[in-house]
Amino acid sequence: MAAAFDLAFDPWDPAFLADPYPAYAELRARGRVHHYAPTNQWLVPHHADVSALLRDRRLGRTYQHRFTHEEFGRTPPPPEQEPFHTLNDHGMLDLEPPDHTRIRRLVSKAFTPRTVERLKPYVRGLADELASALAEAGGGDLLKDVAEPLPVAVIAEMLGIPESDRAPLRPWSAEICGMYELNPSEETAAQAVRASVEFSDYLRELIAARRKEPGDDLISGLIAAHDEGDRLTEQEMISTAVLLLNAGHEATVNATVNGWYALFRNPAQLELLRADHSLIPSAVEELMRYDTPLQLFERWVLDEIELAGTTIPRGAEVALLFGSANHDPAVFQNPSALDLTRPDNPHISFSAGIHYCIGAPLARIELAASMGALLERAPTLRLAAEPERKPNFVIRGLEGLAVEVG
């Protein structure tokens, strides 16, 4: 085990945020686990370990199903943050069995492969519309003009949120997701609390309306979902809807802009894709591996574990470094190279184990649709200016992506 403070890993350094992958290589070279004092976490950089620990039931997304904060050696969150934690803690991403099992089973009854498949024409039509508008304008901001509106509209359509109500969805999501960064500030927490209250209030009204008049949408499906007398509580429905919106577009938005920026910096690969659109499915997988939109996933150690001779005690937190795992040369040949024809690509950008992303099939449809539409409608798409990175580490993205067409 190496002390991580003497390594290049620094999630607040702009140089690291611009390109964290060399620091990950150093972490992997110097060991399988590193204690990082600034966040009091154990960093795990290797693909095999990350993959195994995602499936290890001695770790959990929460500990509150087994321990109080005090028993676990943790300080309870401040009372003023209660609205955020109520919202967050009732979503299946932050629950463990048996609650996780029950909620995921009920949500799966509404979020079926058939539901996702039925959205394909809508996704493709909207992607074509957005790409055409960008091309006709001669360019624009790929983030605001294509990457954001597509997944937000798709998940809102799926949930049954009227078009007139969709404007606050992205700001609410961004403010809530600020809490997933390392050591969020008081200001970030206050914004997340405000967004949690406003989003929850909105969904409570929408659920009440759908109870009176059910529609052919996911909110109505969540209300109707039951299994042997089990139903989702109202709070579980609200938390599920927020989770599906946040997870359902944050990753897709960032995968889109990270992916196109990677293509612009690898022109030979972009030309390969332009010449052969059948590469789109493998390109989607490779771009998610190459510049991973979610760089780490955290787990609490519920029962002491040993990793590479290092004992990690109960009550500790591990940071599973997805970005590093996706560049591990033990799994990926020449991992620092973008290879859209990569035949075997076991990236873990959608996680693994019981918390594997329920929306992964939808995300793949969206990413393929927007890529295909842009290749067809804007075949000469090029970078107009170097983008600025968001000052975030966990959720990796750009402030914008200025492009030109023609």
Fold and architecture overview:
- The structure is a single chain.
- The protein contains 17 helices and 13 strands.
- The chain is an alpha+beta fold and 406 residues long.
- It has a single domain (2-343, 362-404), classed as Cytochrome P450 (Cytochrome p450), CATH 1.10.630.
- Helix 7 (120-136) packs parallel to helix 17 (360-377), helix 10 (169-177) packs across helix 13 (234-265) and helix 15 crosses helix 17 (360-377).
- It is globular.
Q: Return Rg in Å.
A: 21 Å
Strand order of the largest sheet: 1-2-3-11-8-4
CATH topology: Cytochrome p450
User: Are there runs of 5+ residues with pLDDT below 50, and where?
Assistant: none
**Fourth-level CATH superfamily:** Cytochrome P450
Structural class: alpha+beta
- Taking the alpha carbons of the first and last residues, their distance comes to 53 Å
Number of H/I helices: 17
